[in-house]
Amino acid sequence: MHIVVCAKQIPDPETPPAAFKIDAATNKVVPAQGIAPVLSQFDGIAAEAALRIKEAGGDGKVTVISMGGESAQAAIKQVLAMGADEGVLLNDPAFEDGDSHTTAKVLAAAIKELGDVDAVFCGRQAADWDMGQVGLLIAENLGWPVTIIAKGVALEGNALKVERVLADGFEKTEVNLPAVVTVSNEFGEPRYPKLPQIMAAAKKTVTKKTAADLGLDPSEVGKAGARLQLQKLFIPEKGAQVEFIEGETPQEQAANLVAKLKADKAI
Amino acid sequence: MPHNILVVGELDGGTPSSTTLELLNGAQGLAGGGSVSVSLLGTGASAAAAQAAGASKAFVSDDANYDTFRGEQWLPAVQAAVEQSGADLVLMGQTTVGRELGPRLAFRLNTAVAMDCVAVTDNGGTIEATRPAYGGNAQATYTFATTPAVATVRAKSFDPATGGGAAETVELPAAGESRVNVTGKEVTESAGLAITEAPIVVGGGRGLGAPEAFEDLKNLAAAIGTDKAAVGASRAAVDLGWFPPSEQIGLTGKVVTPDLYIAVAISGASQHMAGCSGSKMIVAVNRDKDANIFAFSKYGIVGDWKQVVPALIEEFKKG
Q1: pLDDT at position A239 over 90
Q2: In this predicted structure, which of A254-258, B163-167, B217-221 has the lowest mean pLDDT?
Q3: Domain range list for chain A
Q4: B24 by DSSP, 3-state: which?
Q5: Is B115 close to A11, i.e. CB distance below 8 A?
Q6: Of A226, B92, B289, B307, which is least packed with CB atoms within 10 Å of its CB?
Q7: CATH code at A2-225
Q8: Contact at 8 Å (CB) between B292 and B232?
């Protein structure tokens, strides 16, 4: 059983809103001072799901793939420290400023090149752009079935049993391998690697691949191949100016608040 | 410039869902003399076409195999509807259906989709889609290099359409096979009013400290009125197992747009605000006067919820 986990490095979503800045000229987020980028949290959960299947089966292999700059090595190392076996960094200036379509094309080409992959696990969405497309588009590129927003995944024979989250509950699904699964936060917390595992991860192999290595033409990836074109990235107005409710006691505060809400016809 | 628009409809108890009606209204506003069509799949689809307000044509199949959404079954039918309608813009809800269908349909049509849009507009003939990014810290406006443009749209982004439905219906093929089998479903029982429908929503966060605290929030909702108020939770509280995932408010949960949102012990992480910032008014109770939630609030009480919530319950009970 060979599972690929797709991992993305993103600006820390816990960055305080006051430190979140956009460069209007480039339509890019300005990296916040002193706040390191992190592994997108849903990808960590996808890695956890893949590792649990590997461990339950007793054998098997987990490969973590990330498309990004040199710094994305950190995201790969984190998943290797969790217990993945090998890493692949898809690194080429031609990959930059693409969209979900080009990202999935590159990842799918890398998965095809590995050759013996049984399943691909992705986070339900990258916690920066929040599109939730790449897992689905990898499946379309590979011609594989896909089931998304999983809160539980188990391997039974040649099939994955996937519980997925719906608006009003959960759905149980079954899909034969090879398949793509995207994993949601309802799955549970990813493991936290300890120092010996972090040391061991440093010795694991990370292979680098460029567009040429994957047989991709620069015109079909990155900005050149993107179909969705970002025109403007901006910080929306918050609007409200908060009025703190006065009062000597919680009872007084509560009475004053309810009076204001009544005056505003909000209740 | 006129646009031919296909709305990928969904049925709710045999009638077009509220999101479908909202999209139909949005489509009418954007069509500019072009056509508005709708696709409806599943039991009662043909009959529901007459209720798809604002659509001139409905692409339908009454095949009951469409009732449970399976992407591989819906895709060929919706793709046929897009092609036959000549749509240059396809709209669907950011729902279980849209989340899966949007990217896959775009792939098969050699085009792109913008997910979870809060606005879709026509700027001098060019379709622009605006959506939150970076957990709601930012918004991004996109154009499409390919046609048709596909967008999934967040609930309540448009008012619902009213008036007559589709006069003409076109039959779509029955459902084919799916490689993903659905073997069961568990519906989470939620007592009372749905958080997405309630005019007043009380939200609780990690700052409550313990799952029992949600009983106090339920009492607060009851004091406001069981026909008016419902209780939801932040992702942090849901991930701790304090409240069911189906009642999660935020980017990866439900988007609520009540008249009044009362946020209790919620810090106001962007991820949460993405699910409630469309509320007409936000009121927050938090111990930390610098909490981000206050930046979105009209009124704030700085204090311990353990004292403030019982006081609010007493006050609301006075009527």
Answers
A1: no
A2: B163-167
A3: 2-225, 240-267
A4: helix
A5: no
A6: B289
A7: 3.40.50.620
A8: no
Percent of chain A with pLDDT strictly greater than 90:
89
Nearest to B252 among A20, A124, A239 (CB): A124
pLDDT band at A81 (very low <50, low <70, confident <90, very high): very high
**H or E element at residue B276:** helix B270-276
Residue ranges matching CATH 3.40.50.620 in chain B: 5-171
State the Cα–Cα distance between residues B109 and B75, nearest whole angstrom.
11
Q: How many CB atoms lie within 10 A of CB B197?
A: 12
- What class does CATH assign to B200-317? alpha beta
- What interface predicted TM-score (ipTM) does this complex get? 0.94
Neighbours of A262 (CB within 10 A): 10
Q: Above pLDDT 70, what percent of chain A?
A: 99
User: What is the mean predicted confidence (pLDDT) over A246-265?
Assistant: 94
Residue range(s) of every CATH 3.40.50.1220 domain in chain B: 200-317
- Structure token pair of residue A195: 């120092």
**β-bridge mates for residue B36, sequence order:** B5
Would you call B181 and A174 a contact, using CB atoms and an 8 Å cutoff?
yes
User: Which position has the token pair 């036959």?
Assistant: B84
To the nearest whole Å, the CA of B30 is away from the closest chain A CA by 20
Burial (CB count <10 Å: 0-12, 13-18, 19+), residue B128: buried
Q: What band does A103 get if pLDDT is binned at 50, 70 and 90?
A: very high
Q: Which residues pair with B232 in a beta bridge?
A: B203
Contacts of B187 in chain A (CB under 8 A): 168-169
Give me the residue label for tokens 């500019």. Answer: B32
**In the block, which residue shows the tokens 């599972």?**
A3
On whether any CB of chain B is under 8 Å from the CB of A129, the answer is yes
Q: Which residue has the tokens 């809800």?
A: B93
Neighbouring CB atoms inside 10 A of B186's CB total 12
Does the structural domain B5-171 have CATH classification 3.40.50.620? yes
